[in-house]
Specification:
The protein is an all-alpha fold. The chain is built from 13 helices and no strands.
């Protein structure tokens, strides 16, 4: 009888250890859902920028960062969050996260002035591959051979999207994009992807212990300074025209919403899978651009974007399969 009671109590303890795994799984699913909503909001924001003909895309960032400050400062006061953080190390990471995040947004907006939304998003979403690589180095997350192959295929897709003249013979021509502006757009998009990957790893490193408002306030303040400096040095107007104000305000609101959802998603799942789910913005971008603007991708661009999307989704499926295999092994051990 004692042996049965001890065995039953051990099973209860083991079952008790399983429950947290189920809670983590629900948290992961919520993180995926928030990442998908973030992707839809960001794609809608990009379409709004494309609809603002003649407006400076970076003016939207000024409105976005002002909105964020107006919303976040009362929230920080309500939550009684210290702006300078618990320690110097956390503050330094928050400052670096704010700089990389704001630079990524600025470069993305500058890329939209030289490229179509679909091409910009295709190049930008090389960053999930970079996130997996950086997370392996900085966060000690596992980086399998399969992910290495998918990363290489991602950069092959990038070649198809960018279509360099030394490979494609300079035959690519687009009435909307000259070769010079297209090259600038590619450089801006790729630079934005690099900064976004670094920013994503920093957010994941901070973890759920940092409230999303604490993280975003640094991006808002630093981003506002960076964008104002860029507009003043380029001689462009800081305040948009009245005819562009409403659509730029809508774009800023959607991008702000996407930023909040993405930050909340990263607090519930690892950096690599969340960044992979975020590539659904690429699909949303192509669909919205075709439905609203009537602009479709070229054959090479479609092949490259599809390859990038498939590789990103495959990385996320790989991590999901691994977690399921681990849970199955744990259940088999319990049955034994």
């Amino acid at each position: 009888m004692r042996e049965r009671n001890t065995s039953q109590s051990s099973i209860k303890l083991q079952d008790g250890n399983i429950k947290p795994k189920q809670k983590v799984t629900r948290s992961q699913l919520l993180g995926y859902f928030l990442a998908a909503l973030s992707a839809l909001a960001n794609a809608s924001s990009g379409i709004c920028l494309k609809l603002a003909f003649g407006a400076e895309k970076t003016q939207m960032l000024v409105l976005r960062y002002i909105m964020q400050c107006l919303f976040l400062v009362p929230l920080l006061q309500y939550k009684k969050i210290n702006l300078f953080g618990p320690d110097l190390k956390t503050v330094s990471i928050l400052v670096a996260r704010g700089a990389t995040g704001s630079l990524s947004g600025l470069l993305f907006a500058m890329a939209l002035e030289n490229l179509s939304l679909g091409s910009t998003l295709s190049i930008y979403y090389v960053h999930p591959a970079l996130v997996g690589f950086l997370a392996c180095i900085c966060l000690k997350e596992k980086y399998s051979k399969v992910r290495g192959i998918l990363t290489l295929l991602t950069f092959v897709g990038l070649v198809f999207v960018s279509q360099p003249s030394f490979i494609f013979g300079g035959s690519y021509e687009d009435d909307r994009e000259s070769s010079g502006t297209r090259f600038l757009g590619i450089v801006y998009s790729l630079s934005s992807a690099v900064f976004a990957a670094v920013c994503t790893v920093m957010i994941r490193y901070l973890g759920p212990g940092i409230h999303f408002s604490h993280s975003l306030i640094y991006t808002s303040l630093e981003g506002l300074l960076i964008v104002l400096l860029q507009l003043s040095l380029s001689g462009k107007p800081i305040i948009p025209c009245r005819q562009h104000l409403l659509i730029l305000f809508l774009s800023a609101s959607l991008m702000y919403l996407g930023q909040i959802l993405f930050t909340l998603a990263l607090q519930r799942e690892r950096a690599g899978p969340i960044a992979s789910i975020g590539t659904s913005q690429l699909v949303f971008g192509f669909l919205l651009e075709y439905l609203i603007l009537g602009v479709g991708p070229t054959i090479y661009g479609f092949v490259g974007a599809s390859l990038i999307l498939v590789c990103a989704v495959s990385q996320s499926l790989e991590s999901t399969v691994k977690t399921k295999m681990k849970s199955c092994k744990a259940q088999r051990k319990l049955k034994m």
